[in-house]
Amino acid sequence: MSSLTSAPATTSTAMADFNRTTSRWGQITMIGGLLISVAGPLYLVFATGLDIGPAQLWIAFAAVAATFGIIWIVEPLTYYPILGPAAMYQAFMIGNISNKLLPAALIAQTNIGAKPGSKRAELAAVVAICGAAVVHLISLAIFVGLLGSWLISVIPPSVLLVTRLYVLPTVLGAVLVQAIVSMKQPRTTVFALLVSAVVVFVVLPLVPSLAMVSTAIAVLGTILLAWFFRGKAAISEAKPIHIE
Amino acid sequence: MHQPLALQPLAPNDSTDIMAIANNPVLWICVAGVFGVIIIQSVIFMKAARRAAPSVDMSTQDIKTSFRSGAVSAIGPSLAVSLVAIALLGLFGAPAVLSRIGLIGSAAYDVSAAGIAAGSMGAKLGDASYTQSVFAVAFFAMSIGGAMWMLATLILTPLLRKGDAKIRSVNPAAMAIVPAAALIGAFSCLGLTELPKSSIHVLSFVVSAAVMGACLLLAKKLGKSWLREWGLGISIVIGLSAAYLAVGPAVGS
């Protein structure tokens, strides 16, 4: 991190101070955010009289981990070179990185003419993400917290019922297309659709008890096929993989 | 300890009144806590950036410009996220939507995690099997998923800062293929799982997928990137409208 061969001493101490502050407080605030965000559901599970055993939580966790475990690790790895250490602590707590925070950082860097990779660019990104966070928190509080809660109370029950029943397929239909288009890996896409179709339409009707691990089977199957039948023109660069 | 029997629901965990627990005051406090943590972090980072700025030839005006650019460019995406979040309010309630879809996570991952968790209990989100217990476990699964992202960030960032060569030299082909395969595999299986549920599920899925495809195509053809940002929200609204029209008068009766 200290590639300051020609910079004056004050630069290095000032930036060292910045790095120390952001890394320390980035960690503290992120641990805080992590604990608070898990506290809510744990309170529901254990303090409201619902009959849920720890086993059910572990099973749910394992099912999600089997599906997204790889992404948990790969995402921070691929974003680090773009965001830099300080912005990492902001981005992974605020969320919506690729569709909101990255554009915000890039526009700010362009507007002040900061060269990518420079210290100015790093600071500009951190400041821009702060600006984006403010706008995001305000719009969430107003449009979702206030307006949304009011909307829910006034829309006809039939609309609410349709929303509850069918919002899941609409989200997943759109997200699947988004994933396919943004990954740009036609071969992998074919494998994924084939494996999933076999799992959903053949395996599950035969062995319904596999429903719990069906997504994990599809993920593993797709990875194996995509890996063993990967194209000759190996992709040389790992790009950030993120769908919002 | 002697409560009239009438006050005690016989089987509280079988209730499908999700909103009764989804709007629990403690959850609202947690949402406020997450908002607060992000505000504190932003203030600390702004101060640190301002202190360091003069040493790298960054003027006060540059800081202002950066902040304003970030804020302005976030308006569109923030509104787009809000639209998606509103569509999910009926399913998860405001506190879970605000802390999961609005912040920390994103619609794609959190809805998927919730669906997977519900599946692990033999239930489906939104229908008669969606009880309070299923909601609580689904909310837990979303939150623990987000927590794992943060945990990975907390562990990996200091390592990457030290320039750990081992982490960076992971086989690039594997890094390109495996995560993409995992994502497309996960979302295609989750998506196809919706199809056998009913013909309206098929309709919602197909319409929404088609609208997203059109949005992405138009975004590319016309160079309008806002279509990409709003794609998910637009797809959900049109997909749900199609479902509503198809269900027709049968619903709510």
UniProtKB/TrEMBL annotation, chain A:
Keywords: Membrane, Transmembrane, Transmembrane helix. It comes from the Bacteria. This is Uncharacterized protein. The chain crosses the membrane at residues 25-45, 57-74, 123-152, 158-181, 188-204, 210-229.
TrEMBL record, chain B:
InterPro entries: DUF5058. Keywords: Membrane, Transmembrane, Transmembrane helix. Pfam families: DUF5058. It comes from the Bacteria. The keyword Ligase does not apply. The chain crosses the membrane at residues 26-49, 70-92, 134-160, 172-193, 199-218, 230-251. This is DUF5058 family protein. It comes from Paenarthrobacter nitroguajacolicus (Arthrobacter nitroguajacolicus).
